Amino acid sequence: MRRNNGSLPPAISLFFLTPVIAEFLPGYLSLDSLVTALVLAPMYGGGALLIRELTRRAGRGWWTILILGLAYGVVEEGFGTQSLFNPHYADLELLQPAHLPGLGMGAWWTVFVVALHAVWSIALPIAIVEAFTASRPRQPWLGRIGLTVTALVFALGVAVIASFTMAGDDFRATPGQFIGAAVAVVLLATLALTLGGKLDAQTLAERAAPPVWLVTALSLLAGAAFAGSAFLVSSGGADQLGWPLVLGYLVLVALMVTIVRHWSVSPDWGDAHRLALAGGALLTYAANAFIETPSTPVDPALDLAGNLGFALGAVVLLLLATRRVSNTALRPQRVGQ
After folding, report:
1. Which of 48, 224, 271, 275 has the fewest other C-beta atoms within 10 Å?
2. What's the whole-model pTM score?
3. C-alpha to C-alpha distance for 323 and 246, rounded to whole angstroms
4. What distance lies between CA 214 and its chain's CA centroid?
5. What does the pLDDT look like over 131-190, one tens digit per residue?
6. How is residue 31 annotated by DSSP?
7. Are 305 and 31 in contact (CB under 8 A)?
8. DSSP state of 155
9. Distance separating alpha carbons of residues 223 and 228, to the nearest angstrom
10. Phi–psi pair at 142, nearest 5 degrees
11. In whole angstroms, what is the distance from residue 165 CA to residue 180 CA?
């Protein structure tokens, strides 16, 4: 499965780290459910690893990873959990805000959860693990056999989650909804190969990169604004807040793409800046755990202990990654690389 001996550890790390960051760090799952990470790893870890390998083998960069991350979000929530279509998923009314009756979907939940997966479930774990391989961040980790096995493991992971979901819920999406989700995945994958490449702009020598602290601050603020919207919905007034939040998401995404692309064409933009973006998102997720209610009942003391442990682990991981990047002498690369 491995491409070479040095590439196996980061591939394995990404495979198992991704479900921890995606579900346990933000407090969606609690410490007593940690074994669940092994069940989630094929879907989460397999998806992140597959996207990373396809992108790097194609010579593409971060914009491609992010757009493929959107496609991953559609796969997980459209086929795995069917939350994009289930009006009572997890006993919640997720499709009520900004409801789209003709599609049987909710605009708020669709935009929120798909974007959440693109950034936090896919791009963030890849960025953290690649920071530890800063001397060769764009090198593929897997050969053809490894890539094929990863794709099969990912498909199996989605199937397992789908089977668990259907075993505990009688809801089934319509054939039209499944077809629509499949078309969306194909369109996003196509967009990743076209728009993703176009966003990889040429370096502009006269443009200076911002200080790393400013990049971190922007990432923290944007992450807090995005993640915090879920609590606005849960606090009431879902019907009134749905469409304004959808508009807010689109504006926020447009601003972040514009600002980061403007910064990243500087010849001074490098690994430290990319890690700063990831670090802000990582810390946002860690903070979220302390106000998040786990999906299954848990003793409050154990929940707090788990939140503190995962948050501390995230800080240590970020510090180690920062040290690794600082100790690696590389020619600065733009964000698309």
Report:
1. 224
2. 0.92
3. 38
4. 22
5. 998 777 789 999 999 999 999 999 999 999 999 999 999 999 999 999 999 999 999 999
6. G
7. yes
8. H
9. 8
10. -120, 150
11. 20
